[in-house]
Amino acid sequence: RFADIQQAPPIEVFHVMKAFADSTHEKKVNLSVGAYRTDEAKPWVLPVVRKVEAELAADMTLNHEYLPILGLESFSTAAAKMLLGASHPAIAEGRMTAVQVLSGTGGLRIAAEFLHRILKYNTFYFSTPTWGNHRLIFTQAGFTDVRQYRYWDGKTKGLDFDGMIEDLQNAPENSVVILHSCAHNPTGVDPTQDQWKKIADVVEERKLFPLFDSAYQGFASGDLDKDAWAVRLFAERGFEMIATQSFSKNFGLYNERVGNLMIVVKDPSVIVPMRSQITLLVRGSYSNPPSHGARIVSRVLNDEALFGEWKECIKIMSGRIIEMRKGLQERLEKLGTPGTWNHITAQIGMFSFTGLSAEQSKYLAEKYHIYLLSSGRINMCGLTTGNIDYVAEAINDAVCN
Ligand code: PMP
């Protein structure tokens, strides 16, 4: 009954965003939500996106008819090629299929439902820590055996590789393992290529099912191929695997919900029945995906000139983040802030896992109106040349205090 409904816990990142929005402090800084900001601390509509949007608006042949249940094929095929590499044998051999989904989150949800209901998996692993939504998505899709593998080592402020391997070695067969394909959220720490090879060995030995969450391709290093390295390694080694792709960050299309679900299998004959099952999962949840964002991405990925313009945008975004990393580390070191700060530039992607405690983040919010998550994760894009001194001095104060 309605009267019996318990209050659910708030989603922290939206809670922190609201605190920022409500603050009237003139120097307030938002380091919470994972969204790109320009050096003026403004959201950025990529110029190539604006251009394609104008073309779409002027194109009188387009309409608002439903897309097919599995979405726009020109989009999903191009997206899969971007992740696997256009010449990947799985594509030529017909062992890959891709489906347009509701961004990264919706892709994970359909993947989880497919794995649980159709393939009967019930155990899933995620890294400690991970993006806050992984647990929720998989449990809501029906998984009941929730497990974690070690990832972050607070002492070295890097990867706990031995812990990760040990936990995966002890995983029961047929566990699904969620892996971040690059720019791990929230730590910004990725395995090295050698470490990825060892992870692949364990996944193979233990008969685990790899699921790659790809939310930052191109955004991490500015190089689409480099950021897809781990996914391609697994695909080349012949794993059956799933990858979900988000175009929120690398295209700045957050609210358009543009995503792709890509599945690589060993036997091409399973693809038709598999797609028919995914069709039912989608039909019973949202029926079919929206078209605007997928049309934009499809046009850009399928046109050499637009693709080139987009790659420049990615470089601008990732480059600005790298500059902010350097700037923050330099300032903290100059201020003599206790502790080591080289992890800020060693980490990649949108976030830095600063090592700041929940108390210190609270202190930053209360005294300086600088808003970050209680885990100490900061969105590097929230830093600008205009506020970086203020933030560094505030962090110095929080650490010394
Ligand atoms: N996975 C990870 C690791 C993420 O950080 C995000 C975005 N915060 C997503 C998936 C999905 O985001 P979206 O649903 O906007 O594509």
TrEMBL record:
Molecular function per GO: 2-aminobutanoate transaminase activity; L-aspartate:2-oxoglutarate aminotransferase activity; L-cysteine transaminase activity; pyridoxal phosphate binding
Extra remark: In eukaryotes there are cytoplasmic, mitochondrial and chloroplastic isozymes.
UniProt-listed GO biological process terms: aspartate biosynthetic process
Name of the featured protein: Aspartate aminotransferase
Catalytic reactions on record: 3-sulfino-L-alanine + 2-oxoglutarate = 3-sulfinopyruvate + L-glutamate; L-cysteine + 2-oxoglutarate = 2-oxo-3-sulfanylpropanoate + L-glutamate; L-aspartate + 2-oxoglutarate = oxaloacetate + L-glutamate; (2S)-2-aminobutanoate + 2-oxoglutarate = 2-oxobutanoate + L-glutamate
Aminotransferase class I/classII large domain location: 27-395
EC number(s) reported in the record: 2.6.1.1
Subcellular location: Cytoplasm
One GO CC term on file: cytosol
UniProt record similarity statement: Belongs to the class-I pyridoxal-phosphate-dependent aminotransferase family.
Required co-factors: pyridoxal 5'-phosphate
Assembly and interaction partners: Homodimer.
Cross-referenced InterPro entries: Aminotransferase_I/II_large, Asp_trans, NHTrfase_class1_PyrdxlP-BS, PyrdxlP-dep_Trfase, PyrdxlP-dep_Trfase_major, PyrdxlP-dep_Trfase_small
